[in-house]
Design a protein that fits this description.
187 residues; Ribosomal Protein L22, Chain A; 3-stranded antiparallel sheet; 6 helices; 10 strands
Length: 187
């Protein structure tokens, strides 16, 4: 496998996605209150099975992150609006996607320090920073890791650097999907 495979797709309808679901997943999704949540749950599983085969079994680890049973590939998943992304890699990975029109301005003080806010004046920075911290959280899988423990240190537009609990720098890759979405991932 190449180091990273990003599978970016529109959410499927429930009718399209159910053919990829196991009976247990269908029972689980039947308890969800909204159509959007059902579509998200079913769509990313369908994307995984389209790529890796319909027999792929998906479970959750102790932190609640999805894992592929009996396979070497590592998995990370995110969705926003009508878009889902599945990241597959040969080592642990974290990915996050968000709509660029989401109002990050009103919550920036909850996830960014004053030093982080000073990193960039780029209008996309707040969305990128949110995604970066989410991707790092997913990648490292540290129970109770807080936004403050993931420190952003540099942003160049297509890369953002972070440190987890003062450790070694982590490089995250930034991709913009038209002007609608931003996607950030790290290995």
């Amino acid at each position: 496998m190449t180091p990273v495979t990003l599978l970016i797709r529109p959410l499927m309808t429930e009718e399209e996605a159910v053919r990829w679901a196991t009976p247990e997943e269908l029972a689980c999704v039947a308890t969800f209150g909204t159509e959007q949540r059902r579509r998200e749950f079913l769509s990313w599983r369908a994307v995984v099975r389209e790529a890796l085969g319909n027999d792929v079994m998906i479970a959750y680890n102790a932190l609640g992150a999805p894992v592929l049973c009996g396979r070497a590939e590592h998995l990370s998943v995110s969705h926003a609006g009508d878009c889902v992304v599945v990241a597959l890699a040969d080592r642990p990975i974290g990915v996050d996607i968000e709509r660029m029109d989401r109002n990050f301005e009103r919550v920036k003080g909850k996830y960014l320090t004053a030093n982080e806010l000073a990193i960039s004046c780029d209008s996309r920075f707040l969305a990128v920073a949110w995604c970066a911290k989410e991707a790092v959280y997913k990648r490292y899988g540290i129970r109770e890791l807080t936004f403050e423990e993931v420190q952003l240190t540099n942003f160049t537009g297509d890369r953002i650097m972070a440190c987890v609990r003062g450790g070694d720098p982590v490089e995250l890759i930034v991709q913009y999907l038209d002007t609608e979405f931003v996607l950030v991932y790290c290995l």
